[in-house]
Design a protein that fits this description.
- The protein is α/β, with parallel strands linked by helices.
- The chain folds into two domains: 185 residues, D-Maltodextrin-Binding Protein, domain 2 (3-Layer(aba) Sandwich), CATH 3.40.190.10; 133 residues, D-Maltodextrin-Binding Protein, domain 2 (3-Layer(aba) Sandwich), CATH 3.40.190.
- The chain has eleven helices and ten strands.
- Strands 1, 2, 3, 4, 5, 6, 7, 8, 9 and 10 form a ten-stranded mixed beta sheet that branches.
- Helix 5 links the parallel strand 5 and strand 6.
- The longest helix is centred in the N-terminal third of the chain and has 18 residues.
Amino acid sequence: MTSFRISRRAAVAGALALALGGAGVALAQAPAFFRIGTGGTAGTYYPIGGLIANAISGQDGKGVPGVVATAVASNGSVANVNAIGGGASESGFTQSDVAYWAYTGTGLFEGRPKVQDLRVIATLYPETVHLVARKDANIKSVADLKGKRVSVDEPGSGTIVDARLILGAYGLTEKDIKAEYLKPGPASERLKDGGLDAYFFVGGYPTGAVSELATSTAIALVPIAGPEADKLLSQYQFFAKDTVPAEVYRGVAETPTISVNAQWVTSAKQPEDLVYRITKALWSPDTRKLLDGGHAKGKQIRPETATTGLGIPLHPGAEKFYREAGVLK
């Protein structure tokens, strides 16, 4: 956390120096603040957001001159989409399913105003559905969650949406479990202390909260597979089959599951040139080094998959870059 704060201050200082570098142009070149709503600090969104924020901030001749980007912890996908729609944030990370529902006014956003200005900067990486259980809880299937103490994440997160869909595919609702509403960090602590049997988490593996838990507590990942999962995949096209390899988490065997895409989204109201320059900085060689070396999931953030599984339109600035780069034809 300390190193991130230091780098963020460096980003601010660098951008301000650029803005004030020429006499008489300080006001004309005032820094543009670009927040990135992420998720809980124990998940994957937060560290990835920190890497990207540092990469695109204009400092040391790198990033986007005049831009100060910051990664902001939040309640996750739904909260980030709402913040963008309400003008409280310039951008944020979200699951592709949540973005689609917000844009179309369906699913979780049924009966609510559509977030029609929502636009994609990039598809980032697959987000794996984790169903983490204490090994001694003897939970072999989602169906075994009946009567168990299970956290489905906080209201406003993308995880809680998918947890409800998965429970439903196996004939369960929140009324069939002893539901709690915790982020992965607190959920891990509760499971470790014996106060929880299992919890849902959607995010790129390995995630810090689960990795840390596995070093002190015998855990298992519950498979999300079989005819119930197949029906879920056919019903919701934003889901895809996925597998968590063996020993990604200590002592945990290879586990079949499902995933959605993590996306970086913004508003159509953000200037085209600004988003073009931010997108260009995202795929620069300097950013590549930060992503590859900064987090295991960073290696999966690739330009060739940046426009896959979108569900909603690209921002015109991002689209311009991808066409120039040959990613889009």
